[in-house]
Amino acid sequence: MARLNINGKVHDIKVEPDTPLLWAIREHAGLTGTKYGCGVAQCGACSVHLNGDVVRSCSVPVRNLKPTDRIVTIEALSADSSHPVQKAWLAIDVPQCGYCQSGQIMAASALLHKNPNPTDKDIDDAMTNICRCGTYQRIRTAVHMAASMMPAAAATQAAPAAKPARAKSRA
Amino acid sequence: MTTIDNKSRSPKSPSLKSSSLQSASRRKFIVSTAAAGGGFALGLHLPFAAAAGAPAGTEVNAWVVVFPDDTCAVRIARSEMGQGTLTGLAQLVAEELECDWKKIATEMPTAGQNLAQKRVWGEMGTGGSRGIRTSEDYVRRGGAAARMMLLQAAADDWKVPVGEVTVSEGVITHAASNRTTSYGKVAAAAARLTPPDPKSIKLKDPRDWKIAGKGLKRLDTAEKLNGSLVYAIDMKLPGMLCAAVKASPVFGGKLISYDDKKIAKMPGIKRVVKVNDRTVAVVADTWWRAKKGLDALPIVWDEGPNASRNSATIAAQLKEGLDAPNAYAFRKEGDALAAIAGAAKKVEAVYSTPFLAHACMEPMNCTAKITANRGEVWVPTQNAEAALAALSEESGLPLAQCEVYKHTLGGGFGRRGGSQDYVRQAVAIAKQFPGTPIKMIWTREEDMAHDFFRPISQCKAVAGLDANNKLVGFHMRVSGQSINAFNNSQSLADGKDDRQLQGFTDKPGDAQLGYTFPALLLEYSMRNTHVPVGPWRGVNTNQNGFYMECFIDEVAKAAGADPLEFRRGLMQNHPKHLAVLNAVAEKAEWTKPLPEGMFRGIAQFMGYGSYSAAVAEVSLVDGKVKVHRMVLGVNCGHAVNPEQIAAQVQGSVAMGLSAAFFGDCTVEQGRMTRLNFDTNPVLRLADMPRVETVIVPTYDFWGGVGEPTICVVTPSVMNAVSAATGKPVRSLPLRDSKLV
Fold first, then answer.
1. Which of B91, B100, B76 is CA-nearest to residue B15?
2. What range does the domain containing B385 cover?
3. Is the pTM of this model over 0.80?
4. Helix H or strand E segment including B461
5. How far apart are CA A154 and CA A158, in angstroms?
6. Domain total of chain A
7. ipTM for the predicted complex
8. How far is B22 from chain A (nearest CA, A)?
9. How many whole angstroms separate alpha carbon B637 and alpha carbon B325?
10. Across residues A99-110, what is the average pLDDT?
11. Residues B146 and B271 both lie in one domain
């Protein structure tokens, strides 16, 4: 059993303690925007925010998490895809197949939360997620664009307590 | 006929896409598309499914469905795996339809529907960069026919000659009487008209395009930004169980036994099942528990004779083919061997390229539900019809009782086209759980262990130069594995496999060699291994482009010539190849000196009906290669969406560099040894160069886009590396040379 705060909602999840957060999110909380890509923290498709930091959820066992830890997934990055990173990704038409993009967006939003105006080198160092379609050039452009769109307040608010986007949009 | 259970959270068919975040509300009004008269309802994906009772659309013809709010849904038969074909095809239909692009939507027919409709949507398979170029004609005719019917319906209603009626962005006007109407209003009447003969339709001159030919935004981006797009791996069905699978690590090995009692008490485990003679699956309530069970399951394999094979034995097998007698002479023009023997100077080199994995970001997966009289799969596939056939064969159910719900693929690159092995596996498991949906997911390790790998090959090249450094003879032999032989070994018993010489043909149109040599011998030694092989983005143009273009540079260097000028001298009979080469040379300012420490390389090659060329700029940083800038040129005939072409070019650079720098699937004891991104790395953002795309369409043919440019990435970069180090790169990947 694990008590997890995912997207502002408390989930009591019946899993073994060694279950990776990724699979708790996907198979128990039912949020499938966070993806499985490698299982060994290499590709970053499973990236989520943990207390504002980006983590690779495939390699975080739920036993390491406290009920007070704030976990935010792509579904709750914003209520309506209005986070500057999402807006920039749309404007630049970043995704190809899109499978890695949840993780890319979570990594980029965490970067901008800590560093609102990253250099190319900062982006190189922070954006280590794998994209096999090769959208890297557009990711770089979109991170810069998102930085220019980040209002001062939003830049410090990477972990909103909003309802999941899915719930909102289906209402 | 399949219709969608709109109450299900999980779409049976991920079909309807719209163009923007704002379009979500519009989708609420779209529920089903009952065909006018025919009662044919297309499986529609409705993410916002609460709209029961909303107005239906009208199927004007197979390609176009018009809704009362003037939304036009375009039917897309090809798979979307990131390459943008969905948007490009919609642009082509919309161009002829003359609808309002802001009100465009798309639907994906299923394979079962295509079969039931006598393949009205044509071929669904999406590979070989054919998605647009081999369907552009009939989809444009479909759009044009729908437009003609819609205009005729308005003219009939107004009792005026159709020639007096015009349309712009879906608004029909009769200027003389100052009347207007819209597609949504006349669609029902239009659908009752006799369609025009498609052959009689005159399509627009592409130079007059307003929607096609423009770098419009993709139609499928919004759902990829908030986690809402349901990939097949995200399927949820009532009562669904999950499966993890393991096939014999040694190719050709057999499953002997497993001890399911050892894991029976682990949480969530339902059953361990044999999938086929070489594969076992653990089925559990969640995938993670299934995977844990599989990891703990004692399995006994018969590894068979292939367990003695490894990378060294395979390399030796290929090397033998470089000089063996009886190679297949693919092209023999003049007496190249004699010309080389009598030449003043001889240039010789041996190259090699490894097996490569596709490593699609979304691992292989398939959800299957099998009952006594119906089989269904939810799957990322490049070929829904092949998936349907695999489902039917594996389940034993007739095709008409099977259905394939194709999801957006999390990458394809050729892996999910022909074989549908993962569909067969999921069906074989689900058969053992009648009525229960089974979601099977491969681990990344299984994915890299059981790919259909890019075939391994070696190449020996020899050229002769006369006393004036003029090329007099050219001999190249490729020794390696054949994809066609793997797929059908009987058909190629004689070793004459032209496909392995892709890019070397003299025939114009598809993959023509851009050079004319005074004497030429091009040969192939088929040397098949026990490793399964298949098409990998660009297929054999990758290896052959590397061999040809790096060797041409070596010959140019031996002749003391500039690599660009040397190529130009051989390309006078191939003006289209030359034009693209010239375009990149101009854009990259080939003749302008680079800053200290920067080096250039150039390459050109052809595949998939399109002409490609590249210039790379590299430096060495602490002895390691850094690619700074790449200029890629492509003539794909018509450029349906220049922005998406640029995206494909950028993607081909990333995938090409991944292969050139790191890609190498090594074999030990008969099995693959590098099974995840830690040991089999791929390119990341920090190593991505700045890519500039030069599109030079000549409007006189239709070429591919997804694959053609990847084959010039590696040779242009390796030629630049060679310029930097003074030593040619003859073996890939570069990490073996400690240069990355």
1. B76
2. 232-304+364-441
3. yes
4. strand B457-465
5. 7
6. 2
7. 0.93
8. 10
9. 41
10. 98
11. no
